[in-house]
Design a protein that fits this description.
Helix content is 22%, strand content 34%. A hairpin with a 4-residue loop joins β6 and β7.
């Protein structure tokens, strides 16, 4: 699936994604800086009625949020230099206990990510719009 969307449509896009892919527990977010990864994650959190302040965990690497369905983990792996640094995150425990795990910059962790997962590729279409391409991996 591929489509363009304007920034104002992000809440509707989040609702649509959750209704179509709510059974896929791991979502991988790709895209350059400013492409809308964190903005979309904030909209997903709003749609799930998460009351915590949702922000990119660039420096903390992992944020945990609670919703009625359970724990949601939001990871930002941008700053990791190698796969060895992933060990401290205890990804297995995160994947086992989360109802959702949202990972920005997931490339370094791909060999450790269990299937099925959803891949969301975001890019700039224009100043006020973005393009999203969605793939499922079973």
């Amino acid at each position: 699936m591929e489509r363009d969307f304007i920034i104002d449509e992000v809440p509707e896009l989040a609702q649509e994604l959750l209704s179509q892919f709510d059974l896929i527990p791991v979502w991988l977010f790709y895209g350059e800086m400013g492409s809308g990864k964190t903005t979309l994650i904030k909209a997903l959190a709003d749609a799930l009625q998460i009351e915590d302040d949702v922000s990119s965990p660039t420096y903390g690497i992992v944020h945990e949020y609670q919703c009625v369905r359970g724990s949601i983990y939001h990871l930002d792996l941008f700053r990791l230099q190698n796969a060895k640094e992933l060990e401290i995150l205890q990804l297995d425990e995160i994947f086992e206990s989360a109802c959702f795990t949202w990972i920005e910059w997931p490339q370094i962790a791909l060999p450790l990510i269990p299937k099925p997962y959803l891949q969301l590729y975001l890019s700039h279409a224009s100043e006020s719009s973005r393009k999203i391409r969605i793939l499922t991996t079973c």
